[in-house]
Amino acid sequence: MSQPPSHLVSGFLAHLTMRVPIIQAPMAGVSTPELVAAVSNAGGLGSLGLGAMSVDEARRVIRQTKERTAKPFNANFFCHQPARPDPQKDAAWLQRLAPEFARFNAEPPQELRELYTSFLCDEAQLEMLLDEAPRVASFHFGVPSKDAINALRHRGIFTLATATDVSEAIMARDAGIDAIVAQGWEAGGHRGFFDPDAPDKQLAAMDLLPQIVAAIDIPVIAAGGIMNGAGIAEALSKGAVAAQMGTAFITCTESSANGAYRAALTGQDAPQTVMTRAISGRPARSLENDLTARLKGVPDSAIPDYPKTYDASKALNAVAVAVGETGFGAQWAGQAAGLVRPMPAEKLIQTLAAEMAAV
Length: 359
What we know:
The chain is an alpha/beta fold. Helix content is 40%, strand content 13%.
């Protein structure tokens, strides 16, 4: 194993004024301005998950975060291809879920909506990002156009993009992205690959990381299964300039994870995860719960595109929660979820830094 050149690590950390090589992953629905600010103020890089928000909502949480920290933080957006129209598949999916809605004396939606607009198609989101100008912007499911990336660069915004294999990392670099997040198979939440219909190589983070480091000449960040200082140290030893961690921060005091989500992560039984496309329409790693159990075994060919499938899942969760059932939500988590440690974000950063130093 070989460590990255010291100037690459120090230059990356200095550019983003980070004291420790820790990035809190942009967990949509869990990250809050309080969490992001706490991470950045503690010396890491906090991240807002804005992919599911409207332009006005994204602007509001960026400004709320600025009120809580003067340090850099990351604003994350989705660059997925828009859903393909397929009324027959949509109707069949709603029919498949009808018995689950009936369990709660409810009817499924009449049709599936495309809940989120892709950054690729949303000029207003780009204009908002250029206007608010957080120090860092990151992209999942692909990358913006070269023109958009150049506009961000001229505005002084440092860009990150997720890659699940070497080819995606090269595509992102060639588009002008400043640094790559190498996402391993263990990672919680959505797989970041550009084409969800292409074969997934399912590379573990510590196998993927050195391959991307060897292939490109820009900073690489490790993501997937990293829960403690030893994991961060291993990532650095394999060429990463920092480690991105999501699951580790779900149970932080400042996150918006609900009680059922926290209990599932911290209960007596070690939490188990499953990779499924059936919750949202794209492969994503979730805790096993009632929802994943009832959708188990559904063929990919029957599942509508992202994010239309998510529309039905969110509607089902809403009617379940209304009668006190909490096992039908999307509880994203990585394979090492059993290692979570509930505590304030500042204390977690300090703990991780101390563990890394000890290694």
